[in-house]
Amino acid sequence: MLLGVVLAGGKSSRFGSDKALAELDGHSLLALAVDTLSGWCERVVVCGREQAPAPTLPDWPRAGMGPLGGLAAALRHACDEGYEHVLSCGVDAGRLPDDLPGLLQPGPACLIDQPVIGLWPASAASVLERLLLSDERHSMRHFAELCGAREVRIAGAIPNINTPQDLAALTGLQPPR
Fold first, then answer.
1. What is the mean pLDDT of residues 38-59?
2. How many Cβ atoms from other residues are within 10 Å of residue 9's Cβ?
3. Model-level pTM greater than 0.90?
4. Cα 55 to chain center, whole Å?
5. Residue percentage of the chain with pLDDT more than 90
6. Which of 77, 147, 80 shows the shortest CA–CA distance to 118?
7. Is 94 within 8 Å of 160 (Cβ atoms)?
8. DSSP string, the chain
9. Phi/psi of residue 57, each to 5°?
10. Strands 109-111 and 118-121, bridge-based pairing
11. Which residues of 87-111 are buried (b: 16+ CB within 10 A; e: fewer)?
């Protein structure tokens, strides 16, 4: 069983407003991410937000831990609910490839250019919990190394929407000033 998680707990400081609610193709980035993962996963959760178009989980062990806090919450939830793997993406990923789950199998694996997009065994929860409670570097790349994740290179780039200009580049529109 596969649990999808949209990591949406960021502050959107470079975007200037809540980028999860910014629209691409007539839908919020948050709704697009949830809908995309719903096509591959038995269930989808959103971490780091209280309101979303899917069930939400608070980051673990607390907010402000970056994407690892959301992934830790999702992995813990996956263990509790009997899911074998978690497929993760950030709310700002834009458009994901149609064959993403196949590209990442077998897990653990993540995209080399965006390690927040990955396929993680639920059993990696203990590895991530130890990392987050330690003084070690808290980064997606470090977590991927600790759990032995393969780094997957894909053809083409997945948009990473951090600014209004990034979003405008995808839509062909001028960003708001």
1. 96
2. 23
3. yes
4. 15
5. 73
6. 147
7. yes
8. -EEEEEE-----TTTSS-GGG-EETTEEHHHHHHHHHHTT-SEEEEES-S--SS-EE--SS-TTSTHHHHHHHHHHHHHHHT-SEEEEEETT--SPPTTHHHHHPSSSEEESS-TTSEEEEGGGHHHHHHHHTSSS---HHHHHHHTTPEEE--SS------SHHHHHHHHTSPPP-
9. -130, 140
10. antiparallel
11. bbbbbbbbebeeebbebbeebbbbb
pLDDT digit string (tens) for 57-109?
999 999 989 999 999 999 999 999 999 999 999 999 878 999 999 999 999 99
- For residue range 116-131, list pLDDT tens digits in order: 999 999 999 999 999 9
Question: CA 74 to CA 57: how far, in whole Å?
Answer: 7
Structure tokens at 154: 């894909």
Residues in the chain: 177
CA–CA separation, 151 vs 154, rounded Å?
10
pLDDT at 145 over 80: yes
Two tokens at 26? 């007539």
